[in-house]
Amino acid sequence: MVRQILLLTSCWALASCEYAVRDPFHIGYRVPVQLADGQHVEVETLSNFSTGLPVFYVQDLLSEEECSAIRSAAPRPAMMKSLVAREYQRVTKKRAARHFRDVDVDRDQSLDGDELAQFFKEAADLVDFTWDFLSAYLPKATAAAGDRRQVSQKEFISTDWVKFFRAAKKHHPDWFARHSYQTFVEYSDHAFLQPVLDKVAAVTGLSKSLVRRTAESMQVLLYPEGGHYSCHHDTAPDNPDFPRFLTLFFFLNDVDGGETVFFGTDLNGTYPEDRFAAGEDVWGPIESKCQSVRSCPGFDGSSPFASSLVVKPRAGSAVFWYNMAVTNEGHVGRFYWSSIHGGCPSKGEKWAANIWLHAAHRAGQEL
Ligand SMILES: [Ca+2]
């Protein structure tokens, strides 16, 4: 059923279709691909439509020299801290009253942990916190016994939230949705990147000209120890600026931790898209649940996404997937909510790079 829906909106492995997506067949399926330099690699299916999203893996797609060259093309002084929400800098007492009204969804004039978490997310992309840390700023709330701690309106509004978020950034940078550094590298500035683009074409099955025409500048990422990126989509269904229909993610060094997790996949359970097709709101709850780094494999033993696809970093390897369907004319098609994914905390410096291919929006297109 799901696959039929996707077939209707995807340009599907047709020779005449420039945007044909690679057919995943079944999990574990490997197709050999010869690269321009004569090297052979295998494109392995890690997940397919029946488990949530087609995801492919290619081991040793980049040489050690290419990994090193990409890292060198992104010198540390050029790396910018990946942006998170900065609304918190404007949370005055007056604005705090408005925030309180916005997040007190049950209108009981106090905030519980979930409601407070909503404020933290909106104000600063803060997705993890502990009540122990909060106790310095909200002593009355944290003095209450049990798990059902509440923050009163008076206490919320009188709290210096700018000071709180600054302290959180200083002492717990890993609590924020993104803890990484990034820069963009232009293909035209580096001759060695042209063969890299051609490798992307070879493994995705797309033409070299299409890849060169539609590739966004390469994003190079550096995650410090403990760095991570909470679950997210690489594009949005209605985002005209970044219609990234395909993501190819390179791991540029070996590191423990730092796994990429596809939270919208379910390798041995009920595929959430089935429930989504039945009208159930599954993606909202999944997205809020996978924000915390506690959703990462083995983080605290709870493993809330134990059946999701996990890809471990390995220098030179690549993983790629589709964020949306694309029409034969290259236009944006149906959005794949199941493409939600995240990068787990790395246990050392982790280098990676993204290549995104863009589809086009039709004028006036409604998605
Ligand atoms: Ca409430």
Largest sheet, in brief, is: 9 strands, antiparallel
> Whole-Å distance between the termini?
21 Å
Parts with pLDDT < 50 across at least 5 consecutive residues: 1-9
Bound compounds: calcium ion
Helix content bin: 25-40%
If classified by CATH, what would the architecture of the largest domain be? Sandwich
**pLDDT average, as an integer?**
88
Count of helix runs: 12
Strands side by side in the biggest sheet: 1-2-3-14-11-18-9-8-4
Describe this structure in words.
It is a single chain. With 367 residues, the protein is an alpha+beta fold. The protein folds into two domains: 2-82 and 177-358, q2cbj1_9rhob like domain (Jelly Rolls, Sandwich), CATH 2.60.120.620; 87-175, Recoverin, domain 1. Helix content is 27%, strand content 22%. The protein contains twelve helices and 18 strands. The protein has helices at residues 2-9, 64-72, 93-103, 113-124, 131-134, 139-143, 153-158, 161-171, 193-204, 208-214, 272-277, 283-289, and strands at residues 30-34, 40-47, 55-58, 80-81, 110-111, 151-152, 178-179, 181-185, 218-223, 228-232, 244-251, 260-262, 309-311, 318-322, 324-326, 332-335, 341-343, 350-358. The protein has a nine-stranded antiparallel beta sheet, covered by helices on one side. Strand 15 (324-326) and strand 16 form a beta hairpin. The longest helix is centred in the first third of the chain and has 12 residues, at 113-124. Mean pLDDT is 88; it is low at 1-9. It binds calcium ion. Calcium ion is lined by residues 104, 106, 108, 110-112, 115. GO terms for molecular function: calcium ion binding; iron ion binding; L-ascorbic acid binding; procollagen-proline 4-dioxygenase activity. Keywords: Dioxygenase, Iron, Metal-binding, Oxidoreductase, Signal. Residues 91-126 form the EF-hand domain. Its cofactor is L-ascorbate. Residues 1-17 form the signal peptide.
